[in-house]
Specification:
It is elongated and about 75 Å long. It is built from 14 helices and 5 strands. It is mainly alpha-helical. Helix 3 crosses helix 13, helix 4 packs across helix 8 and helix 8 crosses helix 9. It folds into 2 domains: 218 residues, HUPs (Rossmann fold); 82 residues, Tyrosyl-Transfer RNA Synthetase. The strands form 2 sheets. It has a 3-stranded parallel beta sheet with strand order 1-2-3. A two-stranded parallel ribbon has the order 4-5. It binds adenosine monophosphate and tryptophan.
């Protein structure tokens, strides 16, 4: 235990899917046994792109907390909280904004890409808040003096910027207030969706996290298989089959066997899909059940976040004192 302190966050923006779990949350669940962890639902980050319509924000926050708990994040062991309820995040982001050169933000490679992507969706992101997204993220991390940050590879530029801000802060105020945080990339690769593209909300190809056995079977049944295979006795080509890609991730014990049977024309696609759905159910049925339990206890979810907010706040307040002293903002 205790190899250091971890901070990570996720935006509450819509229903969680299996890709989010395999790419991020599963990693967190593992890391909670080795590190002291702070996990935040970053609702302020969600506002940077969804400021115009906040009608679903509270419901999304609630659902994300349920997803985290049903995946097995322990609210005693970890500090699980809501970013906007620890106001030091906003305060530190403002202070860091004073010393962050504009050119650093304009240079973040994902900035212009994202601006273009989201514009196609009708959102106007020529805002101060959107440009400042990585400053807010830096504030999240260094407010707790975290040394490790588990993220997807898409976040590595943001983390590099966090380190640059840390160096600049420590240099300007002549003290080592913050450590330079390191990324911990998840070993899980990108999970494909049921159509073979990256699993993503925007493609409508997801498997909802916490899917019931029926919902799961519905999605597995829709997965495309080798189009050249008409009869069960035709030899299959697993390398072009989506079900095969899922077998590799969720059915490590049987995948070799099933692959051989497929090539030999000894197993039909329906049977192969049944095997996969059964295996995935072993993982998901338990999460689904836990989710159902938690859905019936909205008061408990509120308490968990409230408890986390208090614990986060205690650390944030003390560190903020130190930061103010270093900057002479007394
Ligand atoms: P998003 O829903 O795109 O904001 O992503 C939230 C987190 O889930 C990030 O850490 C992503 O890297 C991860 N993630 C999203 N989609 C996938 C996927 N298809 N496979 C693996 N990880 C994913
Ligand atoms: N930008 C991250 C993402 O979209 C979410 C995030 C916000 C975050 N603050 C963070 C991740 C701090 C790690 C640490 O996935």
């Amino acid at each position: 235990m205790n190899k250091g302190r971890i901070f990570s966050g996720m935006q509450p923006s819509g229903r969680f899917h299996l890709g989010n779990y395999m790419g991020a949350l599963e990693n967190w669940v593992r890391l909670q046994h080795e590190y002291e962890c702070f996990f935040a639902i970053v609702d302020l980050h969600a506002l940077t792109s969804s400021y115009a319509d906040t009608s679903k924000l509270q419901e999304n926050i609630h659902q994300m907390a349920i997803d985290w708990l049903s995946a097995g994040l322990d609210p005693e062991k970890n500090v699980i909280f809501l970013q906007s309820h620890v106001q030091e995040h906003a305060e530190l982001a403002l202070l860091l904004g004073m010393l962050t050169p504009l050119s650093w933000l304009e240079r973040v490679p994902t900035y212009k890409d994202k601006l273009r992507d989201l514009e196609d969706s009708g959102k106007d992101l020529h805002t101060y808040g959107f440009l400042g997204y990585p400053v807010l993220m830096a504030a999240d991390i260094i407010l707790y003096k975290a040394t490790r940050v588990p993220v997807g590879e898409d976040q590595s530029a943001h983390l590099e910027l966090t380190r640059e801000i840390v160096r600049r802060f420590n240099y300007l105020y002549k003290q080592e207030v913050f450590p330079e945080p390191q990324a911990v990339f998840s070993k899980a690769k990108v999970l494909p969706g049921i159509d073979g593209r990256k699993m993503s909300k925007s493609y409508d190809n997801t498997i909802p996290f916490g899917a019931s056995p029926e919902e799961l079977w519905e999605r597995v049944r829709m997965m495309t298989t080798d189009p050249a295979r008409i009869r069960k006795t035709d030899p299959g080509h697993p390398e072009v089959c989506i079900v095969h890609r899922f077998q590799k991730v969720f059915n490590e014990e049987e995948v070799e066997n099933i692959t051989a049977q497929c090539r030999a024309g000894e197993i039909g696609c329906m049977q192969c899909k049944r095997c996969l759905a059964n295996k995935m159910n072993e993982l998901l049925a338990h999460i689904h059940a836990r989710r159902k339990e938690l859905e019936a206890k909205p008061g408990y979810i509120k308490e968990v976040l409230e408890y986390g907010n208090q614990r986060a706040k205690a650390v944030a307040r003390a560190n903020m004192e130190e930061i103010r002293r270093a900057m002479n903002v007394l």
